[in-house]
Design brief:
The chain is an alpha/beta fold and 202 residues long. Helix content is 44%, strand content 8%. The chain has 8 helices and 4 strands; from the N terminus they run H-H-E-H-E-H-E-H-H-E-H-H. The protein has helices at residues 9-17, 23-36, 57-71, 109-123, 130-134, 145-158, 173-176, 181-192; strands at residues 44-48, 86-90, 127-129, 161-163. The protein has a 4-stranded parallel β-sheet with strand order 3-2-1-4. Strand 1, helix 3 (57-71) and strand 2 (86-90) form a beta-alpha-beta unit.
């Protein structure tokens, strides 16, 4: 991204939209999807960038679950079982070395506790996250936050359906999500691979 400075936002994103990652990164993500118990492609994913939104963690987690239920409403739910395993792509990260600097608010114990409670609610409803794979034996080890972010982007790209908040001004996105470049990168990357993205949580 540094080499693209000075260009307009539209031109920069047009260039980024046609870039892709090297085969080595896709190979690592293939291993990660196996560790997470996800199929190689076709799973459901939600992107939640919670930066500067810590006051609403609990409400946002419940809202995300409601959005997830709406996304699944056309599936056969007569068995009463939880929906399929769903990927969460999120900046909520408790490993300081892998944490985006905009999330330093997690250094506050009460904020961290609220974030963990929100994640636990999602995990209890069949969500999973990149971190779950990285903690397992034999998992790839990211060199830094940038590489871990690439893995999340590839996971987002390979989802069958994904909902993010990108230019969305309705609730719950308005109150729950910082709508920065990362969400737009997800949209651009999927568009390059001819995949649609829900730009608001349903």
């Amino acid at each position: 991204r540094g080499s693209l400075r000075g260009l307009s936002s539209s031109v920069m994103h047009a260039i980024i939209g046609v870039l892709d990652f090297c085969k080595e990164q896709y190979d690592k993500v293939r291993h990660i999807t196996g560790l997470l118990g996800l199929p190689a492609r076709g799973y459901i994913a939600f992107h939640w960038r919670s930066e500067r939104r810590h006051e609403t963690y609990s409400w946002c987690a419940r809202s995300l679950l409601q959005s997830h239920a709406r996304l699944l409403q056309n599936r056969n739910s007569s068995s009463g079982e939880e929906g399929p395993l769903t990927l969460l792509v999120s900046d909520i990260q408790f490993n300081a070395s892998m944490r985006w600097e905009g999330m330093d608010e997690l250094k506050n114990n009460s904020v961290a506790a609220a974030a963990q409670q929100a994640l636990n609610l999602l995990f209890a409803h069949n969500f999973t996250k990149l971190d779950h794979a990285l903690g397992q034996a034999g998992a790839p080890v990211p060199a830094d936050l940038a590489e871990a972010s690439v893995w999340d982007l590839i996971l987002a790209q390979q989802a069958g359906r994904i909902a993010t908040c990108s230019g969305c001004h309705t609730e719950p996105c308005h109150s729950c999500a910082w709508q920065g470049n990362y969400a737009r990168f997800v949209v651009d990357l999927r568009s390059h691979h001819h995949q649609q993205t829900l730009r608001c949580w349903p």
